[in-house]
TrEMBL record:
Residues covered by the Dam-replacing protein HTH domain: 186-254
Domain of life from the UniProt record: Bacteria
Pfam family, one: DpnI_C
Alphabetized InterPro entries for the sequence: DRP, DRP_C, DRP_PD-(D/E)XK_dom, WH-like_DNA-bd_sf
Name of protein: Dam-replacing family protein
Length: 258
């Protein structure tokens, strides 16, 4: 995998945003494989497809690309129209998201992170203020993607600190969470919240330790009055999916494959 953009493609462009789009999209289309089936390269989608930049010709997975100058994606990513993003995330064919970070001084790729579509939820999309009447697109409402709400298991690195991650590692991480696609939206939100809570706990933990996070979950799900019951329910699902193991009554262990 070549970690440098082909800057010759930017000749003739003056706009910084156009240059970035041309270089990043060309690099993705030439270098990146589908994490689901391994097909390479992924293909550029037709123009004017909302929240879809690439797709896999073999398995039909869709991908949206977000790029920024820097070492990592960070926690907040500015994006396009708020309502369009909400509709695409809620659609049956919602896309996976690639977050590409590059160094502008030499146009080299620093990080490429994939967030599978089953980790993307509506509460991650923050509505920005409408553009003022003096703006060219007065009233237009954009959005920001809050990546801090994504569990670490939902941040799959293909490139980190200019180092290429082995494709078999990437695909194993991808496969490990595909069960989330089968969950209803309401249940998926709870599962993602519990998975994020588990990341704060040691490899072996007990029910009391995860109950200590009840107040935090109550703020996230204010309509639910039976938080502890919901916690136990989600732990059961995660056990059935091999994410955690029950080692004894009230005792848990994170699976080595999770």
């Amino acid at each position: 995998m070549n970690l440098y953009f082909d800057t010759r493609l930017a000749e003739g462009y003056k706009s910084a945003s156009q240059i970035t789009r041309v270089l990043t999209e060309n690099w993705m289309g030439a270098q990146v494989y589908c994490p689901n089936c391994g097909c390479k390269p992924i293909q550029k989608a037709a123009n004017n497809c909302p929240v879809q930049d690439f797709l896999c010709a073999r398995c039909d997975e869709q991908f949206e690309l977000k790029s920024k100058n820097g070492k990592t994606a960070g926690k907040m990513i500015n994006d396009g129209a708020y309502q369009t993003m909400i509709e695409r995330i809620q659609a049956d064919d919602n896309p996976n998201f690639f977050f590409l970070s590059y160094r502008k001084v030499d146009y080299s790729v620093q990080q490429l992170m994939l967030v599978p579509k089953h980790f993307m939820t509506v509460d991650m999309i923050i509505r920005r203020k409408p553009l003022p009447p003096t703006a060219k697109r007065a009233g237009w409402i954009g959005c920001t993607i809050d990546l801090s709400k994504v569990p670490e298991s939902g941040k799959i690195l293909l490139i980190q600190q200019q180092q290429i991650v082995a494709p078999e590692t990437v695909r194993a991480q991808w496969q490990a969470t595909l069960f989330l696609r089968q969950q209803q939206s309401s249940r998926k939100g709870w599962l993602l919240a519990i998975i994020k809570c588990l990341e704060q706990l040691p490899e072996t933990f007990n029910l009391k330790q995860i109950y200590a996070l009840e107040a935090k979950l109550a703020l996230q799900f204010p309509k639910n009055k039976y938080i502890k019951d919901k916690i136990r329910q989600q732990l059961q699902i995660l056990r059935d999916q091999g994410v955690i193991e029950f080692s004894a009554r009230g005792q848990y262990r994170k699976s080595k494959s999770s």
